[in-house]
Specification:
GO terms for molecular function: 4 iron, 4 sulfur cluster binding; cobalamin binding; epoxyqueuosine reductase activity; metal ion binding. It is built from twelve helices and ten strands. The protein is an alpha+beta fold and 310 residues long.
């Protein structure tokens, strides 16, 4: 039988081949400290109307309930920092949404990784997750040595900043485990806290999700946004990058090499007027593979009207 070291090396080598910029592995276990923190966050209502955050609490904090017999949690990072950013007077869009929907891109890579692992090792039970299931991916990223959790709630790498997606693969295979990332290099810096347009980032590494621009422009489905947030969105109408843009560690961000994340020309170049004149038919055709389809045409119109004070 091939040994644990071989399996571990195989997974990390394959992750690089698939385009991931980091692969770290942690021992599957219940995250007791994170469970207490999540419960407190939920009790304070910081999830707003994201009721799905209240569901499957035990699954979120214990990977062995997601994959019976789970022994390892594999964390993979995929860089999405773009070659170029928006150069238009149009409303601002978070960089992660410039290209194709990352859920589809990463899910294919995860399925490929698990299939190749099964072909090499034999019977391996596992499940891959991409920001769409009850997994505390940032905690597992820190546990696997990817980086530290910054004051803005993002995983930050000294070498690469924070513009990357986090994917998680839970398997019932014993592997070699990386050391948790023990240091915190945010220091006394408070740029993300000071710069947040809606004051959603609080001291103590707490982000009030119910105040975040990404929550209002993507998660919240109400057709009317709160009046007290009018004029505070700083022209962001799908997501927000302020806390990452001001982070000193993102000076180390390098453009991604994933073809699927090539920015759509419309996102880079559309003026406010072009967004306002866009029909639903055009929206569906242009953004059929884009994360923007998550807000649907009606949501995009709502956001546009709100940030422009209409």
């Amino acid at each position: 039988m091939k040994n644990v070291s071989f399996y571990t090396s195989f997974i990390k080598s394959l992750s690089t081949e698939l385009g991931f910029s980091y692969c770290g592995i942690a021992k599957a276990r219940r995250l007791d400290e994170d469970a207490r923190r999540l419960e407190n966050w939920l009790n304070k209502g910081m999830h707003g109307k994201m009721s799905y955050m209240e569901k499957y609490f035990d699954l979120r904090v214990d990977p062995t309930l997601l994959v019976p017999g789970a022994k390892s949690v594999i964390t993979l990072l995929l860089n999405y920092y773009p070659q170029t950013t928006q150069h238009t007077d149009g409303p601002k869009i978070a960089k992660y949404a410039y290209g194709n929907d990352y859920h589809e891109v990463i899910r294919e890579k995860l399925n490929n990784l698990l299939l190749r692992l099964q072909e090499t090792v034999g019977e391996v039970n596992g499940r891959g997750f991409v920001d769409s299931a009850p997994v505390l991916e940032r905690s597992w990223a820190q546990q696997s040595g990817a980086g530290w959790i910054g004051k803005n709630g993002n995983i930050i790498s000294k070498q690469a900043g924070s513009f990357f997606f986090i994917a998680t693969l839970i398997v019932d295979l014993e592997l070699e485990y990386d050391d948790p990332y023990a240091k915190d290099f945010c220091g006394s810096c408070t740029r993300c806290i000071d710069s947040c347009p809606t004051e959603a980032i609080l001291p103590g590494k707490v982000v009030d999700g119910s105040k975040c621009i990404s929550y209002f422009t993507i998660e919240l489905k109400d057709m009317l946004l709160p009046d007290n947030m009018q004029q505070r969105f700083d022209n962001w109408f799908f997501g927000c990058d302020v806390c990452q843009d001001v982070c000193p560690w993102n000076r180390f961000s390098k453009p991604n090499t994933e073809p699927a994340f090539t920015p759509l020309p419309e996102i880079l170049n559309f003026s406010t007027r072009e967004w306002q004149e866009m029909t639903e038919e055009s929206f569906r055709a242009i953004f059929k593979h884009s994360p923007l389809k998550r807000s649907k045409y009606a949501g995009i119109r709502r956001n546009l009207k709100f940030v422009k004070g209409g």
